[in-house]
Amino acid sequence: MTVQIRPFDPSKDARLIHPWVTHPKAAFWMMQGATLQDVEREYTAITAHPHHDAFIGLVDDEPAFLMERYDPSRIELVGLYDPLPGDVGMHFLVAPTDTPVHGFTRRVITAVMAELFADPATERVVVEPDVSNKAVHALNEAVGFVPEREIQKPEKKALLSFCTRAQFEAAAAVTA
User: Fold this and answer.
1) CA 91 to CA 113: how far, in whole Å?
2) Which of 108, 100, 122, 107 is nearest to 176 (CA)?
3) What pLDDT does residue 173 have?
């Protein structure tokens, strides 16, 4: 499996991800009723933001996942935790499929984490999934995340979790 990650282009990629973010399995993405224009507007704002980026992940040259990287000291988690230098926030969403492949999502999150830690400035990845999203909690744990506590965001109750470079490398060594 070869993974490539490229910058998100709102004018081209909004059409690609619209069915992903509105799919019932993407309920935690909170875009269920979004129109194509809503998705394009949202991702135009993300890609224009100085502290938020979006990317398309390709697996074997096929678009397969959406990844977001953000500065949690500037957006998403401001005032909800004490950020450290080198903290990077992350969201990811795997495209829905009628033919799931066992272990695919775990390989995707591993590739996302490797991409984030490829930047030497990244010391720790921060995530804040919905507390009821047990599937993503298990994936996060598999790549080294350690839950810290529940936090209340405007849109959800979230499980604040952290993964240092060393924790990710240790988890990756176990699955290698």
Assistant:
1) 11
2) 107
3) 86
Q: Tell me, what's the pLDDT at 176?
A: 60
What is the Cα–Cα distance from 136 to 142, expressed in whole angstroms? 10
74, 80 Cβ separation under 8 angstroms: no
d(CA 171, CA 17): 30
Closest C-alpha among 97, 87, 176, 103 to residue 139: 103
Orientation of helix 134-142 relative to helix 104-117, angle to 10° = 60
Q: What is the dihedral of CA 37, 42, 47, 51, to 10 degrees?
A: 170
Note the pTM of the prediction, 2 decimals: 0.95
Length of the chain: 176
Do 111 and 90 meet the contact criterion of CB atoms below 8 Å apart? no
pLDDT in tens, 155-176: 999 999 999 999 999 998 887 6
Alpha-carbon distance values, 95 to 43, 52, 55, 136 (Å): 16, 21, 13, 14
pLDDT in tens, 96-138: 998 989 999 999 999 999 999 999 999 999 999 999 999 999 9
